[in-house]
Write a structure and sequence with these properties.
With about 220 residues, the protein is of the alpha/beta class. The strands form 3 sheets. Strands 2-1-3-4-5 form a 5-stranded parallel sheet, with helices on both faces. Strands 6-7-8-9 form a 4-stranded antiparallel sheet, covered by helices on one side. The longest helix is centred in the middle third of the chain and has 15 residues. It starts with a strand and ends in a 6-residue tail after the last strand. The structure holds calcium ion (CA).
């Protein structure tokens, strides 16, 4: 899952990025509204964290532009403390959730997880496919109840497929959603990760659909 943070306070931005990366997300950081708007218009994110008070273009305008352009990714706005008018304006402009500053990082991550889950049509924070379980809260994966250790990239790939279970996901889509902007994106590495995941979780867990991509289905028993 790939997340965009638009935040102009350097310390907060950096801290959020490293926390989210630690929680298994690919993260891009923009430090002004113009940059943020551009990234959100041209890249595909699973969610955006958007500060409202931003240099160049303010957060509400950025959000309003995205929605007018038809960009539908879930957006969580960061508002000044106790500013109810900010919250109302944010929700009116098309925000999906808001959080007042200062906030607990744990709460931000929990809200982000919920937003991503809901937008991909998953009600529970625990995702299942056959005997494989992925707990989006802890980042732990089990097969038949036994813990399986995945690398960060393997986890990102599996998590994206599990969020979109039953759909065919192309290699390009995977690249867009598991790597951040600065990552050296080589589509061959996707196949390498898929092979490693199959070794750890079983050969049938991910189906290759020739010419289209990959799909994760409930195994037929
Ligand atoms: Ca700000």
């Amino acid at each position: 899952m790939r997340v965009l943070i638009v935040e102009d306070e350097p310390n907060l931005g950096r801290q959020l990025r490293s926390t989210l990366e630690g929680a298994g997300y690919a993260v891009d950081l923009a430090t002004d509204g113009e940059d943020g708007h551009y990234l959100g218009s041209t890249e595909n994110y699973d969610a955006v964290i958007l500060d409202l008070g931003l240099p160049e273009v303010d957060g509400l305008t950025v959000l309003d532009r995205w929605r007018k352009e038809g960009r539908k990714m879930p957006v969580l706005v960061l508002t000044a403390r106790d500013s109810w008018s900010d919250k109302v304006a944010g929700l009116d402009a098309g925000a999906d959730d808001y959080l007042a500053k200062p906030f607990q990082t744990e709460e931000l991550i929990a809200r982000l997880r919920a937003l991503i889950r809901r937008s991909s049509g998953n009600a529970s924070s625990e995702l299942n496919a056959g005997d494989i379980r992925l707990d989006t809260r802890s980042g732990k994966v089990t097969k038949g109840g036994e813990p399986v250790k995945l690398t960060a990239q393997e986890y990102k790939l599996l998590s994206y497929l599990m969020h979109h279970k039953g759909k065919v996901v192309s290699r390009t889509e995977l690249i867009e959603h598991i790597y951040d902007q600065d990552f050296d994106r080589d589509s061959n590495t996707i196949e390498v990760f898929v092979t490693r995941i199959r070794k750890k979780l079983g050969p049938d867990v991910i189906t290759t659909i020739r010419g289209l991509g990959y799909s994760l289905e409930e195994p037929v028993s």
